[in-house]
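Supplementary Text 2. Reproducibility record for the structural model of the 544-residue chain.

All settings were left at their defaults, and a single model was retained for analysis rather than an ensemble. We include the record here because the model underlies the residue-level annotations in Supplementary Table 4.
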Amino acid sequence: MDIRDKVVYQIYPKSFYDTNGDGLGDLAGVTAKLDYLKELGVDFLWLTPFFVSPQNDNGYDVADYCAVDPRFGTMEDAEALIRAARERGIGIMLDMVFNHTSTQHAWFQRALAGDPAYMDYYIWQDGREGRPPTNWVSKFGKSAWEYVPARGKYYLHLFDVTQADLNWENPRVREELKQVIRFWKKKGVEGFRFDVVNLISKPAVFEDDHKGDGRRFYTDGRHVHEFLKELTRDTGIDAMVTVGEMSSTSLENCIRYSNPAEKELSMVFSFHHLKIDYKDGAKWALQEPDIGALKKLFSIWQEGMAAGAGWNAVFWCNHDQPRIVSRLGDDGAYWKASAKMLAACTHFMRGTPYIYQGEELGMTNAGYTDIAQYEDVESLNYYEILLAAGKSKEEALHILSARSRDNSRTPMQWSAAENAGFTSGTPWLALPDNFTMINAAAERMDPDSIFRFYQTLIRLRKEMPIIQRGDIFFLERENASIIAYERAYAEQKLRVYCNFRAANVPLMEDSLDALTEAGWKKLLGNYEGLAADLRPYEVVVLTK
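Retained model, structure tokens:
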């Protein structure tokens, strides 16, 4: 399938739309809003996991890959959604969490009971004189190992203690996971997203990491490419849309993962560009976003992936990231302008754009002020870690308000009605107060809205081969406030200029006046006309 003209919309079902009043979004709620998504113009819906789960990590701790968690509905609801989406020309992509399972999964329960066949489904190691096998740290903080007295061994969990890592070295495990893919293919699913899939191949020998938290031993591991090739070949998904979430990965590996000749994945998510406000690389330490670093990362990955025939998933937001308009834009005076600029910045790039639910409305961070408002396991863990490190409650809450994954998980804002029209009950997670202004009903009525701007971006990608196929080269490389690039295809050229500041900023390499005199014409922008300098959070798209 040619993915170059496609746009994917991510849905976090728990927060999308609730049809039964229990405060949780459900699959029937996604079906109910398909006409809205058709109006937006997207091609695929990526749904985060709705499988049976104890929900310790909001569904990424799967207890049964082939059953629908009752809180989201029934298998009939899933089948109805797949059919109804297909009738509208929209494909469903499911989220496969294959690095680990819930400790409540039947496989792990059999391992706990001592069944040797199922013990080999997971990664067990002996301790060292009462200590864990290695000093590795889980992604959620604390040790990556958990001791099970009945077995006298530790199991590996790179994430929460209730998420035990699978042993991909075991061919039976790989076959079990292939069966999951085949099951959902038969249901009519048209694509798959693979969670932290570059972590599935672990080392032959486990040892301490004296330089970090252990990730260098398992990231882009020794057999990961052959495992992905095998999974793709044996399940026949090479012609489907597939995307891998890559944790702490490298450009070279991502080229291999996504180069069509390798037959592994259609595209990859990488996250380096979303760490430019991490102080000293630490997620829970704040600093002002480094736009120069952001531009450098975009140029390295965009130009590098093009040179190697790889393919990016281009995105700002997902269920694990704060809202981008609050993070790199301005959710106050320049809310609309900055949301549009951020959208255009990525949608004209080389790659497949992903829109996270509510991003097309300019939804903002939650603005929580009390730890009791948070639900996310990572946020709650790190709140305690920050306090233990000497931060005051106020300081810890300030960091959470900027970084917490709950910022992206607040319910979708459908209208100015009670609970933003998300539910007739009590929402599982509190809404930002601004839903009375920022909501789908209001924006669909406004021809200048962020929603309408996203519609235009999607339409242009489908209409213009230069956006789908063009080469890319970055401009204004020394300008610390502006991200700019040129696309070229056949005889056509396109330039995108994005101002990331709340002030007027001049171009350094060319002036807009000089460009228009040279025959460049404005295709799109978030201000009327053209000024001498780029205005606050302005985006200008020119063609020639």
